[in-house]
Amino acid sequence: MKENISLGVIIGNRDFFPDKLVGECRSDLMEAFKKAGVKPIMLEENLTKLGGVETFGDAQKCAELFRRNADKIMGVLVVLPNFGDEKGVAETLKLARLDVPVLVQAYPDDLNKMDVARRRDAWCGKISVCNNLYQYGIKYSITTKHVVHPSDPSFAADLANFVAVCRVVKGLKNVRIGAVGARPGAFNTVRYSEKILQRHGISVVTVDLSHILGHANRLTKEDGVVKERLEKIKGYSPTGRTPDDKLIQIAKLDVALTHFMDEHALDATAIQCWTSLQQNYGCNVCTSMSMMSENMLPSACEVDVTGTLSMYAMQLASGSPSALVDWNNNYAEDENKCVLFHCGNWAKSFLPDIEISTAPILGTTIGEENTYGALAGRTPAMPLTYGRISTDDPKGIIKAYVGEGMLTDDTLNTFGTRAVAAIPNLQNLMQFICKNGFEHHVVMNASKTAGILQEAFGNYMGWEVQNFN
């Protein structure tokens, strides 16, 4: 879910331009912030000339304000109602030491107000500000239009996207992921580097699957926490033909997983699902994973840590749940459509016809009676952002790809959690995935946020990212 965020605001000024432009700018910004749900942190009008930043002294005052509110500020908006003082802006950010995304906006001139008393020259000033930020090594974003008024719909979209970029960057730099159990032996594809992730602020907390199963087995159906969780499960999804004893098993496992997450303050999990869970405990963990993902605590199967990291990033960008899927099948002869599939762990936001069921493919080898807990459901037509984060160990980097398409209502007669995706240039995308060693797992989100993710991953996280949008 999206929450209001705080942005630091720097209003640039230059002494030979009319000061009233700064005052008018504050009023324009407050209206834009109100619509966007942004809480501004900026200089009071009496601390500098109308609260603008021009001199080094102004920069010191603004930087000190930002440092006092460093725990609140997720990004900084630089606004140029006139040419502005490029050094004042750069010095403020240097002294504040926030290391957050920065968006640079500049006002357009009115063709009928180009006299000395009313001209802005912010078109030129923005170039100078960006030049100085580049020299200082400060990462920044720019508006879609080179100059744009805060009341323009284009700026409203830019501001909303920038807020999303701020959420993604802050979230990724502090995320804690639980790796539950060992990677399934046959799945080399989900191997990853904890060390590379940690270098980027991403922490992984591991636990042996036996620890979770031991905790679950010590619980009984009479325990209050189990009864409570059982009711939540029944309220979450129709249970179909799932026997009561299997529902209790699922509830006990869910209690153990929740305890592990709470104990370590985890934001996401990646869980060893098959085949150890089914053989040693007797059910699937898909229902618990779906409930966690729906509640914005994304959970990926097969201990796909960078898969759940991708889910978390997309969730931050869109404010809605994500799902881990397989690039699974062609769709008839259509080269720009494919089938997305998994045994049954998608958040129910993707599954209006959700039902707790079994995993038929697993059941062929370990007995279908041991696979209750997998969900079944068909995802209807909705927007699609897809993407994947991966550690590239030989190169020592984090890399990613993102793109957009649509989920469709095309006929699909199969089981599990399933969807049909229409993606432009799908064949080129598959070539890229195969040639660059990406996993068979991808993440889907019901949004159009590829640009947000590209900006966050590439510009601010410093990752290698390809946008197929």
From TrEMBL:
<keyword id="KW-0413">Isomerase</keyword>
<feature type="domain" description="L-fucose isomerase C-terminal">
    <location>
        <begin position="340"/>
        <end position="466"/>
    </location>
</feature>
<dbReference type="InterPro" id="IPR009015">
    <property type="entry name" value="Fucose_isomerase_N/cen_sf"/>
</dbReference>
<keyword id="KW-0119">Carbohydrate metabolism</keyword>
<dbReference type="GO" id="GO:0005737">
    <property type="term" value="C:cytoplasm"/>
</dbReference>
<dbReference type="GO" id="GO:0006004">
    <property type="term" value="P:fucose metabolic process"/>
</dbReference>
<dbReference type="GO" id="GO:0008736">
    <property type="term" value="F:L-fucose isomerase activity"/>
</dbReference>
<dbReference type="Pfam" id="PF02952">
    <property type="entry name" value="Fucose_iso_C"/>
</dbReference>
<dbReference type="InterPro" id="IPR015888">
    <property type="entry name" value="Fuc_isomerase_C"/>
</dbReference>
<protein>
    <submittedName>
        <fullName>Fucose isomerase</fullName>
    </submittedName>
</protein>
